[in-house]
Amino acid sequence: MNKKNRIRKLAIMGGTFDPIHMGHLVTAEEVRHEFNVDEVLFVPTGHPPHKSHINMTTCEHRYLMTVLATAANPYFKVSRIEIEREGVTYTIDTIKELKRIYGEDVSLYFITGADAVHKILGWKESAELLQLCDFVAVTRPGYNKEDLMRKVKEINEKYETNIHFLEVPALAISSSDIRKRLMEMKPIKYLVPQEVENYIKKHALYDYKIHLTEDEKACMYDYVASKLSPKRYAHTRGVVEMALEYAKLNGIDYGETFIAALFHDIAKEITPKESLALCEKYEIELDDYERTHIHLAHGKIGAVILQRDWGISKPSILNAIKYHTLGRLNMTDLEKVIYLADMTEEGRSSYKGKEEIKHLAQYNLDRAMYKALVSSYNYITNILKQEAHPIINELIAYYKQFDISEH
Ligand code: ATP
Ligand code: MG
Questions:
Q1: Which ligand is nearest to the CA of 139?
Q2: Going residue by residue through the chain (407 aa), what tens digit of pLDDT does each one get?
Q3: Is the CB of 110 under 6 A from ligand 1?
Q4: What are the structural domains of the chain?
Q5: Cβ density class 285-309: b for 16+ within 10 Å, e for less
Q6: Residue of 69, 302, 323, 324 with fewest CB within 10 Å of its CB?
Q7: Beta partners for 77?
Q8: Ligand lying closest to the C-alpha of residue 191
Q9: Cβ-proximal residues to 342 (8 Å cutoff; 6+ apart), any chain
Q10: Residue 113 Cα, ligand 1 centroid: separation in angstroms?
Q11: How many Å is the Cα radius of gyration of the chain?
Q12: pTM value > 0.90
């Protein structure tokens, strides 16, 4: 193979590239120059553990954006090996495959940002991985240079490895920040290549309107069914049905409603101990009441799980899941719909006022919210004999203005 003979030094830039940005490109170019490598291979990561069509589309988008971003640099190439591999992708497998493709004698330099260096030892077969290739740890804004150098030195001594340290021109850019900016309608010009910006706009990525195919929906139903008892799954299906009806009548987006309703209780059957652990792990903020009634955190945990396992990060959906149990001030219509559907789905046993709430939710969400909140309050204080979360009183006071029946 021609290629095999030419390439002696290959740098690998792995990442989700969701989307690729100038920070990635500057880093790759700096490594190319400093280490005098023949080629920098960008390797977009493959499927997350739960393979779905939604994530597969994202894979293609991420791949194509990476191609667009790197096309003008003759030293940059993009690889599909992780995208095309079935199941979860591990760096060790990628490195071994690259050795097969490029030949055993090629020197590999795996580029990682300061944030990832700390994690290398936790990667699959890290000891072997550290022997198979060199690592280049690059500085990244927000990370302490001394800390990074210390960590690199520590690993090198302990594992007799070759992790190099490289300072790259600081660009305080991250893909998550770019996604956030897009959601907030802020500009991303000069943070990503123009071609990438054009592509994002053309395909309405990140501030996307969600279109689900029947296959994708079936995938989601299967996933949710696998996480819940049959009884709770039946309730969930009831909430989906009810929420979609309210959404249609109130002019709310179908895809967002479907996902929020389907995933609203995804974390409900997680044990209290595990719930607390997840809150800690994902830095989920809880108030005192939620900490003592940890089951109430299932909305917040559910939102994180949806984002983690399905890559869905649209705030409107996540918030509808987050706030479906307690509600919050300034609820959006979607948040109200999920809250109300949860309280009124067909399978939920009947209570005083249920039919009225159902009726109101079809055309006046605020009036329905008032009735639903009062009903919740009565249930918590009279039947459960508990003190209600303070937010419920605040919300009742706010929604009372919509209750024309009492004026
Ligand atoms: P996210 O915010 O979604 O985590 P990201 O911007 O960190 O995205 P990744 O695709 O996770 O991008 O990053 C791939 C690699 O590029 C990682 O090793 C990461 O540390 C590095 N990297 C990302 N942004 C920068 C930057 N601005 N400067 C230096 N390295 C970076
Ligand atoms: Mg990252």
A1: 1
A2: 444 457 799 999 999 999 999 999 999 999 999 999 999 999 999 865 444 445 555 788 999 999 999 999 999 999 999 998 877 778 899 999 999 999 989 999 999 988 888 788 888 888 899 899 999 999 988 888 888 889 889 888 888 888 999 999 988 999 999 988 887 667 899 999 999 999 987 776 876 556 678 888 999 999 999 999 999 999 999 999 999 999 999 999 898 999 999 999 999 999 999 999 999 999 999 999 999 999 999 999 999 999 888 878 788 899 999 999 999 999 999 999 999 999 999 999 999 999 999 999 999 999 999 999 999 999 999 999 999 999 999 999 999 999 986 54
A3: no
A4: 3-203 (3.40.50.620), 214-406 (1.10.3210.10)
A5: ebeeebeebbebbbbbbbbbbbbeb
A6: 323
A7: 41
A8: 1
A9: 239, 264, 324, 325
A10: 6
A11: 25
A12: no
